[in-house]
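[09:14] KT: can someone run the structure on this one? pasting the chain below
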Amino acid sequence: KDHLALTILIPLTSPDVSFGGGGTGFWAGNRDTLENPEGREADLVLKPEAGSALVFGGDVTHAGMPVDAGIRSVFVCSFSTRTSASPSDRLHGLKA
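[09:31] RB: done, structure tokens below
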């Protein structure tokens, strides 16, 4: 969880061509799942092709999975909003 409003992940390399293993893991439960699921296997691991995109909210528990061989490269953009109602633990240094 990074608590940002929106994350866009664009793979720059393709699975099984550029790297083995890897991908982005997601854990069910979202807000009820710890930020570090400590040893729990991901409920879902996505390995999209280069040039496609994953789009998800920051309250989804997610992590990059270990790469066994080769090199995995991704372009990641995370977006946040700040309003007067934003909890302080979600500001990540954002200022008015």
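[09:33] KT: thanks! The longest strand covers residues 6-11.
[09:34] RB: yep, looked fine to me
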